[in-house]
Amino acid sequence: MSFVPSSILVTGGAGFIGSNFIHSFVAANPACRITNLDCLTYAGNLKNLTSIENRPNYSFLKGDIADAQLVAKILAEQQVDAVVHFAAESHVDRSITGPEIFVRTNVLGTQILLEESRKHWQSGVVADFRFLQISTDEVYGSLGDTGFFTEETPLAANSPYSASKAGADLLVRAYHETFGMPTLNTRCSNNYGPYHFPEKLIPLLIHNIINKKTLPVYGDGLNIRDWLHVNDHAAAIEVVLKTAAPGSVYNIGGNNEWKNIDIVNLVCDLLDGRLGREAGENRRLISFVKDRPGHDRRYAIDATRLKNDLGWEPAYTFEQGISETIDWYLANQEWVAEVTSGSYREYYQTQYGGGAA
Ligand code: NAD
Ligand code: DAU
Predict the structure, then answer these.
(1) Which tens digit of pLDDT belongs to each residue from 224-268?
(2) Bridge partners for 36 per DSSP
(3) What is this structure's pTM?
(4) Which of 201, 205, 263, 287 to mutate to test the pocket of ligand 2 (most atoms within 8 A of CB)?
């Protein structure tokens, strides 16, 4: 099965994964129009896209996925034949202190996007259509010392964030089962790479080490995550969009499990050399702090289905990916400084003149 999209609506394309996806997709698919709809929350940063913003097949619209009229207008005017849905509130810690926006964006926003997509698809103005929901391994809950999440693992979300993503995934399933809508659903493990907001573990570590600030390790530091380079995730999304059968669900993972404390030590040691500090100096910044409530112990993804059905495998080794990522942050200190100072938010005003779409 092969689907060649001619006009895709990317939601949340100014965030970490969405912007990396747009970078690769816009270059590899010059005949496909890409419309990026993003309301630019604290996590949305148009500076992530400056190198491609003038491409003829790319355009940006500031707006909310929960604005049904706006979504309907874009789908119709752009003759959209695929929606790639990244937009979300994505940080687990924020969902613990303020869950409401997670339900509003991740559940209600997804439902509105699905409903407008359904009407657009059923109107028959495009020959074929896909709705790709970008989701997370966190919907499966937590693992013990052994085993992997497969696509058949029951959903057992534990944080308000993952519960809101599970709710959205079930709505996507419902639109396929009820209306026969050609939906797709991917569930990926922890991403790392360029343009990652420094509230998340890896960019936070790099930023704090450079600035000799404390490195907070939650609990005993023995929680396990599976790490995948964001470019590998972007490649998997493109493969699923173009070749997966409607209605399917695919796990995406790196087969690359790390205890948090081992990642922290690794990043410390790699930066000792690069910053000209003595061996072990950065590790002295580590501080064990109170655990995240409901902290999932271990995530591990079985991505066999994606490999067997569609031939995708990660291209990056972790050694290469983490090294390149650290070098990217060192070479892009201005980006980090703008994000941490909040000044990146002024860029929209100067570039696009303000005002909603
Ligand atoms: P992010 O927080 O960096 O970016 C989210 C983007 O969505 C931002 O640009 C934000 O402005 C936009 N957005 C938020 N609410 C919106 C709304 N109502 N309307 C329009 N735009 C809105 O997130 P990310 O880390 O890039 O994650 C992207 C997607 O991938 C999410 O759905 C997340 O659940 C999923 N995911 C993330 C990871 C990861 O490791 N980061 C792993 C698996 C899945
Ligand atoms: O698994 C996929 C998920 O990965 C995505 O769905 C989420 O959007 C993404 O944010 C990420 O969630 P995590 O909670 O795993 O990522 P985070 O970077 O917040 O934390 C990674 C691990 O590190 C986790 O076990 C908590 C721990 N941690 C995190 C921070 C920010 C610390 O020990 N200290 C920290 O300061």
Answers:
(1) 999 999 999 999 999 999 999 999 999 999 999 999 999 999 999
(2) 10, 60
(3) 0.98
(4) 201
